[in-house]
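Aim 2 progress update. The chain analyzed this quarter is reproduced below.
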Amino acid sequence: MDNIYYQMDTTNTSFLELHKVFEFQNKIKNNKFFLAVKDPTLIGVDPYDPNLNLETKQRIIKECVNNYWYYLREIVRIPDIGGDKGTQFKLHRGNLAINFCMMNNFNTMAELSLQHGKNITVSARLSWEFLFGTTNSSADIISKSMENSKLNLHIIREICVALPDYLKLNNFKIDIKGSIQRYIDNYEKIECPLNHNTINVVSNRKYLKKKLIDTNPSIASPRQWYDDFTFIKNIRKVYYNSLPKIHEAILQAKHNNSPNGIIITTSP
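Predicted structure tokens:
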């Protein structure tokens, strides 16, 4: 078993505050798992330091691959209005529970009031899966409208854009001949050419046509995000028509220990 260390000097105060609440107020013994770091040499290191050497950058990349909590706590920057650097992810009980369920590939439903960060939470998780968490996989985003789905994809894209340059694995790759291969990045789909992962915006209409579901093998992904679930038109038919293909994709992902499962978010 790998040794686990804890980053008690993190600049992300929301993680430290929740740890203190669990330890002193709630008397929970396992109160700092979200402060974990596997490589102790990264304790005290600023991943956004422009003077990092190559070895340190490689250690950070490895830590991101192996430790989602490190990525969420130290790396993720959320776009903010009027700012150019973004803000750190703010952890609270609600999104801690959501993250725990997604990390364990549970089918998850989160009902939170507006401005409690449920969309940001899922977007951050999908950005990690997209860049570090798997290979040759995909995720689908479905919402009450195409505009909302595209907005969620935009948030994921902005999280990726805000990363340090050495972590922007989705920018491009160089093929055997030395040519730069560009990646798909538009309002309806993004792809990472290094690991062949994609995130797609899916129209509800596709799932309303069962014949199309049966004939299109790429219409379902092992990771599904239904946002504003209770406000999606014809949601019962959309959901049940999608399940057979989703189930098949999830089974394949489970076999390969790849992220999978259905995520449902909605406001009351």
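Residues 82-266 form a domain with the Rossmann fold fold (CATH 3.40.50.300). Residues 235-255 form the longest helix (21 residues). These observations will guide the mutagenesis experiments scheduled for the next reporting period.
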